[in-house]
Every structure is written in structure tokens, then in C-alpha cells.
Amino acid sequence: MKKNFDFVVFGAEGMQGKIVAKDLLESDYSVLMCGWFDTDKRRIQHLLDDYPKSRFDHSDARNVKRVQRIIKRSGADVVVNCVEGDWNLHVMRAAINAKAHYIDLGSEIPMTKTQLNMHDRLKRMGLISITGAGSVPGIGNVMLRYAAHKFDRIKSIEAGFAWDSNIKKFVPPFSIESITEEFIDPAPYIEGGKWKEKRPLDTVERGFYRTIGMQKRFIVRHPETYTFYHYYRHKGVKNIKFWASFPKHSFQTICTIIELGMCGKDDMLFRHSKIRPVEFSTELLKDIEPPEGYKEKENLWVWIEGKHNGRHREILMECLANTTKGWEDSGCNVDTGRPAAILAQMIKEGVIKKPGSYAPEGIVPPNKFFEELRERKMVVLEDGEIINK
Questions:
Q1: Which residues contact 349 (CB under 8 A, 6 or more apart)?
Q2: What pTM was estimated for this model as a whole?
Q3: Is residue 1 included in any domain, yes or no?
């Protein structure tokens, strides 16, 4: 590897990694794209062909020493991690050892706690880490930061996503492992100031969303439940929930995949080799192409209830994303990969410069971030009015 790079993207062969890399390359940065295996190169060959400032390398993200060597050899000072959240700490530690700034798309609450608890260490080292830098977590956290200063006291925060497509055919909206965890894993939430848990599919109800319409929704485990409380408990927040909404055709397919055992995490023996069904399903679904003319739309939202100047107040923040020209194969996943690329560039350019370990609501400047979203055809609304025109 003879040249230095501006960024290293791990998990570049996946949906979000490809989006992050393309955004950075379109901004004329140099990017080293890393996949799990050497064979993953085929999934991003089009980027390697189209952008001369790109290169490929491979590394098992669980191998901290190898990941660290790749980062050091690349010369990059910002690492964007798009691998499965299970391995976030591995890549984060490699980045720290290589003295590089770090961004990821989020993980479950225990790992998020561990990452935020590394704040003082990163502060001493002059390094920045942002976990949960995509859509939700990501855009939603920054929308909360924007609105929170308009409250003296906050009673409740609810957040979530809803999406739909014009062709009612299943196209994996993001990592199938992450998706099925949202359907299966117990969902923690805060009610009356106390942590509680429920089985996600026991909480199903209906909700209405701008541009989407009516959909079923259910409470899921998401790191925002913890980070919202972490940053705003001083305002007295007592209730926090995170909701997921899927279109009917996608909801039914995901339930079938789960029922068939295709996302099991226990090892099984297949032709004298051990495999985890979820890993096989993840690799298989990466190669599903959306049908011709397929388009998606998504609504990311945060609702805040509290008081200002002694009076009751509610604010609804929304970010609307659609399939955009030149990004058709990404659907509305642009609202996850491109925000991560925005934050990576903000760190590189010194817009975000305060060292430490953060979730987005702890460090990202909302107005500048919203401006960058609008450049990428994503609008942000406060109580129905666009604020990033």
C-alpha cells in the first residue's frame, strides 16, 4: 500500500459501507475500502473502477491487530466502521491503537455504554469517537439535540422509523442480522423513570407517518433509549421508547425468515464445517438486487414532550428521505450511510473537533449537519415545517 488515504471504511462490501465510501469518493477524498474477505472485492468493483482514489483490502474485523495495521499503513486519520455492531469494540480499539478518529453505525446498549465510558481516555489522547452515526441512531439523535434546548424540562421522548416502497417486494432494508434482532430481542424502554422490557411483537400497534401513512409499529431495542437518557436525564426525562415500523410485505417476509431458523446464531454443522445460519443469510441477502424501478421512502422521527417557561410543550422532528438519482441501488438507505460520511468529513475538516467518546446528540452541530443532509436531498422538519431549506 503505497499511498496515504483520507479515510478507511470497514464493512465496505455491505450496503452501508458502499454508501459511505461512495459519498466520500464523490467529495474527492481518497478511501481505502475494507471487506471481511478478499472475495468481497467483487461487491465494490464498480467503485474501484469509477474512482481512482479508491483501493481495496480485506480483514476479519475481529482481528484487532490486523485492523490496526491496516489503519496505520493507510495513513488515514478517520475510520468509518460499517461492520455488524457485534464487532464495534474490536474496530474501535484498533482505531484507538492506531491513533485515528472513529465512527460507527451503532450497536446494542451494553456496547454503547462501554464505548461512551471510554470518553476520558479518548479525550486525553485527543481522539474523537462517535457511535451511532447513521439514521436512527444518527439523524434522530441530532434532531433531539436541536429540539431539546427549547425545553426547560423533558418528560417523554419517543423516536423511530417508518418506511415503504413503491414495489411490494422484499428487498433487505439493512443488515438482516440487525433487523431480526429488532423483532426477537427483548426491547428495553424507560417508563416512569424505571427501566422495563417487553417482547417486541407483544407491543404492536398502529401509527401514522408523514409520506408513509398508517403502519404497524412495535417497540425495539435501540441504543437511543440509553443515549437519550444519558444526555438528557438532567432535564428530568421519565419516559423513552423507540419504535420500528415496516411495510406489510417486508414485515411478513422477515417473520418467515425468523420462523425458518435462517437467522439463528448457534453454530450448526454443514458439510464438516461449522456455520451460523445468520451469517449465511447475511451473505446471501447482500446479493439481492432491487427490481427495476424500485423506490423507497422513509420517515425518521423524534417526538419530545415537556415544559418551557412553565407551559406544556410538544415538538415533532422528522427527517424525510427518498430514493435519489444516482443512488437508486441504495433505496432509502442513503439516510444511514450518507450521514456517517457527513460526520467523517466534519471530523476531517475540523468542524467537529472536541475529543472524547460521544453519541451524536452529544457533539454534532445540528444546523451544519442539517445543511449537509439537504445537499443530499434529505429534508428536516420541525412540527411540519422544513427547517433546512
A1: none
A2: 0.92
A3: no
